[in-house]
Amino acid sequence: MERSMLENRPMTYPLAALLDKMRGDLPSPARVPLPEVFWSWIGSFLGVFMVAALDRVFFQDGDQMLLIGSFGASAVLLYGAPSSPLAQPRNLLLGHFLSALVGVAMARLFPDQAWMAGPLAVSTAVVVMHLTRSLHPPGGATALIAVIGSTQIHDLGFLYAFVPVLLGASLMLMVALVFNNLIPTRRYPLWWM
Predict the structure, then answer these.
(1) Taking the CA of residue 147 as centre, how many other CA atoms within 13 Å lie in the half-sphere pointing to its CB?
(2) Is the pLDDT of residue 113 over 80?
(3) Average pLDDT, the chain
(4) What is the pLDDT of residues 57-112, one digit of tens each?
(5) CA 57 to CA 62: how far, in whole Å?
(6) What integer pLDDT is reported at residue 175 of this predicted model?
(7) What is the DSSP string of 70-84?
(8) What is d(CA 134, CA 111) in angstroms, rounded to the nearest whole number?
(9) What is the 3-state secondary structure (H, E, C) of 149-181?
(10) How far apart, in whole angstroms, are the C-alpha atoms of residue 156 and residue 161?
(11) DSSP SS3 for 111
(12) How far apart are the C-alpha atoms of 163 and 65, rounded to whole Å?
């Protein structure tokens, strides 16, 4: 075809193909049985409660130093979908830990520029988790918290990766190991490393 004909041709095919991919024509997954819903509630309560209780005992004068927002998302995976590859111990621990290191590094590279440090922290954390086979979606939030967190979080520097991140994730893992294996229909973990 001539160049002028290509330039004047409408761009409907790529848009139509893109829209076709967005149809989402598969059926919704079935609802989880009520006993599983109940166990997910109990497990997530116990896991987050363990971290919150230790936070209250050791850090009651400051911010919620052990209880960071990304642990809520980890609870969904650990206690609501324990057989997910994203919920396995390697993913939980390394995903949070490495993402925390990335987040602190970006916060230090771009101080007072959260608009740049935040997106760089999350996207770089995703790459690091992929490369280390430790993808854990809440890790993205852990990286972002290192950037947008309070002054108390920023003052921790790289210690943030150890306390609250690694310590809190380890506590949740301990609860998941005991709790998920007490339930006859569950087995956790499926692998360690």
Answers:
(1) 29
(2) yes
(3) 92
(4) 887 766 667 899 999 999 999 999 999 999 999 999 999 999 999 999 999 999 99
(5) 11
(6) 98
(7) HHHHHHIIIIISTTS
(8) 27
(9) CCHHHHHHHHHHHHHHHHHHHHHHHHHHHHHHH
(10) 9
(11) coil
(12) 8
